[in-house]
Amino acid sequence: MLKLPQSFGVIYLGEAFCTYISVSNTSSEPVTNIVIKAELQTDRQKVTLKDGTKTPLPSLGPGEREDFIVSHDVKEVGPHTLVCSTSYTAPDGEQKYVPQYFKFASHNPFSVRTKSRTVAAETGAPQVLMEACVENATKGTLFLEYVRFDAGTGLSATRVAPPTAVGQSAGRHRSPAGAAVSSYVAGLQLLDPGGAVNTLYRVQRLGPGTAEHAAAQVTIVGGNSTALGRLEIKWRGMLGDMGRLQTQQITAPVLLAKDVELVMTAVEKEVQAEVPFNITLAVRRSNDASSTVNSGQYTVVCGPSSAPGETLAEGAAREQRDGQGNVVVLSQTPDVVDLSEAAEASVQVTLLPLRTGVQHLPLLRLQDVQRHVTFDAVESTVMVHPCAS
Amino acid sequence: MRESEEGLRRLALQGAWRIVAERTQGFQSAGPRGSKEAWQETAWHALALAKLRAYGAALEVLASADLPAQLGRPQESLDRFYILFQFCDAQRELQSAGLTADAEVRWRGQWSQRQNAVAGSLMAQHCSAREYGAALEWVGWALDQHPDDPVLQSRVGHLQLALGDISAASATFKALSGNAARMPAGLLQRNRGLLLFAQGDFQGAMKEFDGALSADSSDTIAANNRAICHMYACNLPGAIKAIEGDLRSRAAAHLQETVLLNLSSMYELSSAGAAAESKRALSDWAGRSGPDDLDISCIRAD
Description:
The structure holds 2 protein chains of 2 kinds.
Chain A (H helix, E strand, L loop, with lengths): L10 E2 L3 E9 L6 E11 L4 E6 L5 E4 L4 E9 L4 E12 L5 E13 L2 E10 L7 E10 L5 E10 L3 E6 L15 H12 L2 E2 L4 E10 L5 H5 L4 E2 L3 E12 L5 E5 L3 E4 L6 E8 L2 E3 L4 E9 L11 E6 L9 H10 L5 E7 L3 E2 L5 E10 L3 E4 L3 E5 L5 E5 L2 E5 L4
Parallel strand pairs in A: 1-8, 20-29
Antiparallel strand pairs in A: 2-6, 3-4, 3-5, 3-7, 7-8, 9-10, 10-14, 11-13, 11-16, 12-14, 15-16, 16-17, 16-18, 19-21, 21-25, 22-24, 22-27, 23-25, 26-29, 27-28
Chain B lengths: L4 H9 L3 H7 L12 H16 L3 H7 L5 H4 L3 H20 L7 H28 L3 H14 L4 H14 L2 H11 L10 H12 L3 H14 L4 H13 L3 H14 L1 H4 L2 H14 L1 H18 L13
Helix pairs in contact in B: 2-3, 3-4, 6-7, 7-8, 8-9, 9-10, 9-11, 10-11, 11-12, 11-13, 12-13, 13-14, 14-16, 16-17
């Protein structure tokens, strides 16, 4: 049985505030030229919900009424005042103005916490793992339609979903109807008061060659953070009343926004001792038009430090002499890549593992040829098995 | 003189709970070895006290599962109902030595019926607490026992609407429409009316509730919901007229707390000045015409 709300109740950010307004003439004489206005005021703004200034009612007789319903999406937390006012001409010709005020407060239905961790991927572009915890701060159960992460410009986001478990009601006979209801309930995302849902997203730069990548620039916020994107939450209340919220911009440290980056795109994880193997590196420049260092020639060097002009092979020999390398670099093809024409170039490095076990690859750094400035670095590990003889 | 079971039932149907309480107040509290008549009288007395909202006194007479919820202890009621459910399960499976095959079938049938009633109470308790997921699980259990019951299937749709899952409710009601012949009068139209209401089509919903009332003019749910549709369609006078008309024509059927609460809210909205007088008149009339267990405080006439 449907029941009318008994009070303004609690209104939540993202929901629609809907109200029935009734203006009636309770006097014993008619009034004329009636202008009805309804406004919603907060600390920051005043929104007009209805303005009858241009279309005043000619008259309202004794007992007559004018009813209307107004609706407004609540976009602010805190106190709200609904001001319903009527101005009219009384029978004696006097202009009268009658305002009425109705106060309520809107609350935040969710508490949202996020945590970002930048992960230097072994293959593919570096990525940020962003965990979001959305907690129900209301006093009722909320039916979550979705929690979605909309990645920022130049980025893509994919949800990392846990493996789904299929529940079974063991030990009792299930009719198709009963089993269908259980399956439906199991698929619902219901948040009890205080309950929370945790989601994990992988955020990375859009791949080169895509139309989005060509056009997009990753947004840098405040000089040392990347704008990852926003979380959008949509939920349903009783009889389908919809609520929708978007968070502020979620940021992460500026690992993603590099002028030029070095990415390991192909590496064998298990190799044999004393058998050469290859890794493939991609050298990519960003589309940031404000950067002056994107173009030019680059090379890959070995180790945490090197002499200016030292080649990859020379660096590898130095590392081995210093006793630092169980995996040594044999060669690099090509020696130098030029990014002035293309946004990306590929480099193949041939390595030789000398000892068995889990071994670190030498640190490979991307340097520009002219100024010997390091722009990026990659490192990885391989499992070296004994040579099959 | 002790009132007969039939007499008490007649008084209860008339809503004369004060008389039921008076006629059973001389009961001897039934102990574990109490006679069937003593237990019946105890139960009637507790029921009458509960109907008159003397929940504490009713609980002292009989340890009932639903009474703690009325006293502000809903978790205690839930716990008792779950224990009762398991008790019914155990009793149904109990092998009673010396019973004939027919008697055993009757025994199991009796305890299954009781268990179904407890499941219904669990559904209601979870609904009151807005735990619609749990309520749905109990509907699923009940459907395992009665998979073709259209009332239970409708319940699934109602709970889906309460959750806000309109598309799922629409699919549920659509699947049910093929079972119309087995449905109680008006249920199909009420389902369609609720769905249209949730979808914002208040005129369409009104027509469906009108259809339900044509099938059964004492359908309080359809009557109440039709009036709410009037209001949501911005016709407050029409809503008030609809409820007042229903109360005048079929008071015995429509005089319920939710209907009175809605009408009282409509009076308050229609006129701040005249509302007090209208509510006082409604309260006086409901107090005279309604059963003893009608809670007229919902009218807020003071």
